[in-house]
TrEMBL record:
Listed name of the protein: ABC-type sugar transport system ATPase subunit
Annotated PANTHER family: CARBOHYDRATE TRANSPORT ATP-BINDING PROTEIN MG119-RELATED, GALACTOFURANOSE TRANSPORTER ATP-BINDING PROTEIN YTFR
UniProt-listed SUPFAM superfamilies: P-loop containing nucleoside triphosphate hydrolases (SSF52540)
Keyword entries, A-Z: ATP-binding, Nucleotide-binding, Repeat, Sugar transport, Transport
InterPro entries in the cross-refs: AAA+_ATPase, ABC_carbohydrate_import_ATPase, ABC_transporter-like_ATP-bd, P-loop_NTPase
Pfam families according to UniProt: ABC_tran
Organism per entry: Labrys monachus
């Protein structure tokens, strides 16, 4: 039925989107240099490219948020009113953002229906909304309570809410900006099932992703952006993963290659021992040890307690408990990030926008803010020192040095992530906790970041990495701890035998099915 409605209101062209010669210049920076993109009605169209290639800018133009400096766009055959998000919504466009737009104080349900039908809210409407929420949640295999406070949900659950909101809006052209970066395989699969179902009903979807496997899995057409220009666009069948990488980066990249560290000294004293770590309602009785020079990966599904474990160690969970020994000395359990830092522990959080970066400050200030002592003399900040230090840190994580003066707000998502890593590094940790370090990072830069983490470990740091990308956890880690439902359920040492994704999932699921 829905399909018939869509075709009836869709002009003969059969295109949901026709963009020609779209240009965007941000005070001299050409984010888009005249691109042509077409998307057929009822298709899934992927946009890929390196960090800063212009993908989000393009989506922003289609969403009506960004006014291009040149070019034309037709939506279902009609000229697009640029810079008018409301008008874009009327044309049937909805966007699911990479940076979450969840209102933390509102309930999960209120977030899904935000901006829709609220004026008509009555009891009946309330019941209808609840039924619709539950239907969507079931379709997407999520178990979020409708009245849960959104701000208390995990990033993954917030992402699911964001998707539910987009789907619920009844849009005919849905734009997804990296919808899957914080989702584990089962959530991803649920989303893809839903996307396929919506495609069958005539919805057009355009999505940005750095995960090339999922791009090849779900899309009908893949368009590659490179440095603001189109470097290829073809049906899925014409692409292979290496071909996509070459179009994006210009050369071959081996994804998730195993990065071995320097040989570990047998019998080295642990850098960190945490015993009986608990966070009420999230994790229970987790023990872990970390050697200097070691990367410990934490695998598990969304909701397994991975992030809570890192946050507890970083002093961000006031109700957490446990015993901590750093470098052979028992220290009190950290109650604030400042206390954690005193023990040399620093966290790179997963949600860079709300927890990590000040968007209105430059990359340089964001990096330097955490350690003024390093860049000042007698209490006076030295700009030269700040520039020098922040450039050095930026370079380490593959962030263009000449952009350290740019406001973080004006950086692409992937480049913000690199600044966040640089900022944590600048604090001088001995123990670095990284939550989703390659979230939103392109395939080339991902390898660079993993190499940098390995180099830091070789310099003697202890690093704990949480990532939804289990292949990445395996490639990067010396040992892997598997969490499920708030508990540690397995530990693997890759020095003995290399671990597979299947090993991790089996360990995680075994507990869930036995309970
Ligand atoms: N509001 C802005 N002001 C100035 N420059 C901007 C602004 N928004 C984006 N840019 C610049 O435009 C370029 C393209 O950025 P865009 O966010 O579109 O890249 P992207 O392909 O989505 O990258 P990523 O994969 O890292 O998210 C970058 O150089 C970015 O710094």
């Amino acid at each position: 039925m829905q399909h018939a409605t869509v075709t009836a209101s869709t002009p003969r062209s059969g295109f949901a989107l026709q963009a020609t010669g779209v240009e965007m210049s941000y005070s001299g920076t050409m984010a888009l240099k005249g691109v042509d993109v077409e998307a057929r009605t009822g298709s899934i169209h992927a946009l890929v490219g390196e960090n800063g290639a212009g993908k989000s800018t393009f989506l922003g133009i289609i969403a009506g948020r960004v006014v291009p400096t040149g070019g034309a766009v037709r939506i279902f055959g009609q000229p697009h009113a640029f810079g008018a998000p409301r008008q874009a919504r009327r044309l049937g466009i909805a966007t699911i953002y990479q940076e979450l737009t969840i209102v933390p104080a509102l309930s999960a349900q209120a977030n899904v229906f935000l901006g829709q039908t609220l004026s008509r809210v009555g009891l009946l409407e309330e019941r209808r909304m609840r039924a619709r929420f539950e239907e969507l949640a079931a379709q997407m295999s999520v178990s979020i309570r409708p009245d849960a406070v959104a701000g208390r949900l995990s990033v993954a659950d917030q992402q699911m809410l964001e998707i539910m909101r987009g789907v619920q809006s009844g849009a005919r052209l849905l734009l997804f900006d990296e919808p899957t970066t914080s989702l584990a395989p089962p959530e991803r699969e649920a989303l893809f099932r839903l996307m396929r179902q919506m495609r069958a009903e005539g919805t057009t979807m355009m999505f940005v992703s750095h995960n090339l496997e999922e791009v090849l899995d779900i899309s009908d057409v893949v368009t590659v952006f490179r440095d603001g220009a189109l470097s290829g666009s073809a049906p899925r069948a014409d692409w292979t993963k290496p071909a996509l990488i070459r179009a994006m980066v210009g050369h071959d990249v081996v994804e998730n290659r195993r990065i071995e560290g320097a040989p570990r000294k047998p019998g080295a004293a642990p850098l960190l021992i945490a015993k009986g770590v608990g966070v009420p309602g999230a994790i229970e009785n987790v023990d872990l040890e970390l050697q200097p020079g070691e990367i410990l990966g934490v695998g598990g599904l969304v909701g397994s307690g991975r992030t809570s474990l890192l946050r507890a160690l970083a002093g961000l969970e006031p109700r957490s408990t446990g015993d901590l020994v750093v470098d052979g000395v028992a220290v009190s359990w950290p109650r604030s990030p400042r206390e954690a830092l005193k023990s040399g522990i620093v966290l790179v959080p997963e949600d860079r926008k709300t927890q990590g970066l000040v968007l209105g400050m430059s990359a340089m200030d964001n990096i330097a803010i955490s350690r003024f002592g390093e860049v000042s003399r007698f209490g006076v900040i030295s700009n030269t020192a700040m520039l020098r230090k922040s450039r050095a840190v930026a370079r380490e994580f593959g962030f263009a040095e000449n952009r350290v003066g740019t406001l973080v707000r004006h950086l692409s998502g992937g480049n913000q992530q690199k600044v966040l890593l640089g900022k944590a590094r600048f604090r001088g940790p001995r123990i670095l906790l990284v939550d989703e370090p390659t979230r939103g990072i392109d395939v080339g830069a991902k390898d660079e970041i993993m190499m940098t983490l390995r180099r830091l470990a070789d310099e003697g740091l202890g690093i704990i990495v949480v990532s939804s990308d289990l292949e990445e956890v395996i490639a990067a880690s010396d040992r892997i701890l598997v969490m499920s439902e708030g508990r540690k359920v397995a530990e693997f040492d890759q020095g003995d035998t290399p671990v597979t994704v299947q090993d991790i999932l089996t360990a995680a699921f075994k507990v869930m099915t036995h309970d």
